[in-house]
Amino acid sequence: xxxxxxxxxxxxxxxxxxxxxxxxxxxxxxxxxxxxxxxxxxxxxxxxxxxxxxxxxxxxxxxxxxxxxxxxxxxxxxxxxxxxxxxxxxxxxxxxxxxxxxxxxxxxxxxxxxxxxxxxxxxxxxxxxxxxxxxxxxxxxxx
Amino acid sequence: xxxxxxxxxxxxxxxxxxxxxxxxxxxxxxxxxxxxxxxxxxxxxxxxxxxxxxxxxxxxxxxxxxxxxxxxxxxxxxxxxxxxxxxxxxxxxxxxxxxxxxxxxxxxxxxxxxxxxxxxxxxxxxxxxxxxxxxxxxxxxxxxxxxxxxxxxxxxxxxxxxxxxxxxxxxxxxxxxxxxxxxxxxxxxxxxxxxxxxxxxxxxxxxxxxxxxxxxxxxxxxxxxxxxxxxxxxxxxxxxxxxxxxxxxxxxxxxxxxxxxxxxxxxxxxxxxxxxxxxxxxxxxxxxxxxxxxxxxxxxxxxxxxxxxxxxxxxxxxxxxxxxxxxxxxxxxxxxxxxxxxxxxxxxxxxxxxxxxxxxxxxxxxxxxxxxxxxxxxxxxxxxxxxxxxxxxxxxxxxxxxxxxxxxxxxxxxxxxxxxxxxxxxxx
Lengths: 143, 428
Hints:
Helix content of chain B: 10-25%
Strand order of the largest sheet of chain A: 2-5-1-6
CATH superfamily of chain A: Periplasmic binding protein-like II
Strand content of chain B: over 45%
Low-confidence stretches of chain A: 10-19
Oligomer: heterodimer
Radius of gyration of chain A: 15 Å
Largest interface: A-B, 42 and 55 residues
Structural class of chain B: mainly beta
Strand order of the largest sheet of chain B: 2-4-5-6-7-8-9-12-13-14-15-16-17-18-19-21
CATH class of the domain at 62-89 and 167-181 and 195-427 in chain B: Mainly Beta
Mean pLDDT of chain B: 87
CATH topology of the domain at 62-89 and 167-181 and 195-427 in chain B: Porin
Radius of gyration of chain B: 23 Å
Number of strands of chain B: 21
Number of helices of chain A: 5
Low-confidence stretches of chain B: 1-54
Shape of chain A: globular
Largest sheet of chain B: 16 strands, antiparallel, barrel
CATH class of chain A: Alpha Beta
CATH architecture of the domain at 62-89 and 167-181 and 195-427 in chain B: Beta Barrel
Number of domains of chain A: 1
Strand content of chain A: 15-25%
CATH topology of chain A: D-Maltodextrin-Binding Protein, domain 2
Order of helices and strands of chain B: EHHEEEEEEHEEEEEEHHEEEEHEEEE
Number of helices of chain B: 6
């Protein structure tokens, strides 16, 4: 609990001092998934749970970053122009109608990469510079 | 392999933790008794669960603290017809306040059990908690879902999330559209299938079941339990757009308790002919709706239309709809909207018994609605998972518009009313 709080505090302070530094974010899938590229609509459909499989039928297992992570803020801002409160409102509708649960939220890029690398249908978003051989970049977010 | 799900209140499966499966749901009280401690434990241990657990069980909740008043005591303003009493020109918290708790339990990779308990003001004037839904979900393929048990019904868009204030922009779903939907759940089954189509997704759902619940009528209640209900929708969602057409119907198993109400209030005995004329038993009501939603960047807009065809002479066919638009700046989203409902008065009986005909006509007038509402409000996402809202509704209609309200004082009611609402919505 306290670690999360500390991270949050640091993030807020960081934001005050430097303003959020925007990294280039990319969407990555497992290198063996058979998926080579995705459109923005494909990415939206998967991350919002509208579509739960890739074009080749493989079940998509999207993964998110924890609530206040700066790259989570950036991802949804660039993908759909939405604030996190709106993303959370969207998921509260899906959850409390019993339709579906939100993607799991991990605390770091390392964990996201591990998640994607260890599941054939794994899909997440990371900084471009962190995408390694275990994953394949299928979409680049534009500011 | 279970997917670690990060959700507040996740219980991990560490030995020694209370294992929820043991919380058999023998009774609602027992179930809630299990849920509350589980929730507390879940909150305390959520950090651990985050670390590395296999959280096949999670508890989440939602709630609203709301206050509403109108500027008249000629009628009582309700959120929908499932509420026995409503708001007048004094502030009340009962109309909009709610608390809900939901448990999700993944029992196998493709199988889930979901149960939701909810406490809100209802037909019997109490906040007695009830099981809103409890079902088993099976997903044989990623885009196919089958559910059975006690299910929320979604016969208008967003009808099954009407109490989750945090999930929408306004204080409450626009009344002119949702008032006549006191139905919330069925004992039955539904099937939903999503199919990618071009840039978007086509989604279809059908459901069938037996309705639950009661609808208050004066001091009596209309039992709608066991009335068969069925319906479905077809939806296309692409980018920022969502379009949906839906249809549902219900076949009423019982008559409205009109005879009892008249006996009680006026010591009037409804004749057999009148009862036959006003019968609801065996009649079917059809609900049609169309909805369009646009949601991208700071903009949110919705347009919904419905048409209801009633089988009983006690209720009138109606057309309703609303348009809503909101624009977010920072954490504040102001919105404006317009909603309306018009029902079509039926032929009143002419039987040669003027007193009986007058009584029947009086009963039938109670089902008339003819009004529109302009509303203006603001949602402020003041903290993580907490939203504050303020809203002003101006209702303008005919003095014959009685159906949406409770306890109407017909001689005084002029069809006009202002409604002021404040609420705090949260999820946890």
